[in-house]
Amino acid sequence: MTPGAQLNTPVALFLFNRSDRAQRILEEIRRARPTRLFLVADGPRNAEEEAQCERARAVAELVDWPCEVMTDFAERNLGLRRRIPSGIEWVFGEVDRAILLEDDCLPHPTFFPYCEELLDRYSEEERVMHVAGSQLLRESPNGGASYHFSRYVHIWGWATWRRAWRRYDGALDEWHAARRRGREACLRRWFAAEDERNYWRYVWDNFATSTNWSAQWSYACIARRALAITPNRNMISNVGFGADATNAKEDPLGIANRPLEGIGFPLVHPGSIEADVRADAATSHLFRISSPPPASAAREPLRRRAWAAILRVGGRVLDFVPAPIRPRIRHRDRRPPGESAR
User: Fold this and answer.
1) pLDDT by residue (tens digit) across 145-173?
2) DSSP H helical ranges for 223-301
3) What is the pLDDT of residues 97-141, one digit of tens each?
4) How far is CA 7 from CA 24, 66, 131, 156, 218, in A?
5) How many alpha carbons lie under 13 Å from residue 77 in its C-beta half-sphere?
6) CA-CA distance, 100 to 111, in Å (whole number)?
């Protein structure tokens, strides 16, 4: 894709109940003018949220370019752990690749052509499962390329393929089916640092008690020694932190509202498809400065809860957008199994 041209790769936008952020993100999508747009929404948690959700969904009226719009609305609140994966599953029932944005993830204009080019370039490379738009390290990798490969996934603005998403297991059956000794052996192979092993053990053992969905995606990639493409300059700014957020109420590591740097074209590709050891060591350091969130996590020092906060923040959709407002929109109701339409 030439920057400024219409985007051929489908975009999926997840929203919920904050129309101001929904509009801001959709305006950036509007600049890319994708030919297909998927709008996914969770239902309100209570009667007071119904109007807020409707206002967020109504920003779909900003779709005024040639575009097929499809919606997936939940009538009841499914929660983040169910809504996001079910929305992604729906998207990949329709297309074989997509760019995925939550409505608190503000993209730089170059994010879209960057994703499109790399989705094309690595479409047949099974080792590559994820294309990230975020660069969260304090010091960006400086290897001369536009991006590097990592074993860690960042989901504040990302893209993937159907062939990769089919590895997602929301119940982590593979992890829980293994005997404890087998799980420990895997952890030792995957992580050199004990703190990191402790963290992921806790997350994967206790995911059912959280709203997290991205820890399961991390497992799908890490367990297969897969790689994530990570840009060397940041293209996503998370604008969703605050008291009204579902999880991202605090920003202990100062990662909210990061400056948008963008990326230059033509992209400079790495010389090999291998994880950047130095960049991954820096990312792993984020795990080592924190501990697994114990039952008494609320009483733990803030620094020890920092990475747990990042994971929780990374795996949620704060707002959703949808509304059947154009002739080409295909609407899909979401309701609990066995419940008829109202």
Assistant:
1) 999 999 999 999 999 999 999 999 999 99
2) 277-288
3) 999 999 999 999 999 999 999 999 999 999 999 999 999 887 878
4) 19, 11, 16, 20, 28
5) 16
6) 11
314's CB contacts (< 8 A; 6+ apart) are 154, 155, 156, 214
CB atoms within 10 A of CB 7: 21
Q: What is the pTM of this model?
A: 0.83
Whether residue 231 contacts residue 135, with contact meaning beta carbons closer than 8 Å, is answered with: yes
Closest listed residue to residue 319, CA positions, set 242, 231, 236 = 242
User: Which residues are CB-neighbours of 273 under 8 A, at least 6 positions away?
Assistant: 125, 127, 128, 149, 227
Residue 96: how many other CB atoms lie within 10 Å:
12
Edge-to-edge strand ranges of the sheet holding 68-74: 147-150, 227-231, 128-132, 158-161, 97-102, 11-15, 36-41, 68-74, 330-334
- The one-character DSSP state at 61 is G
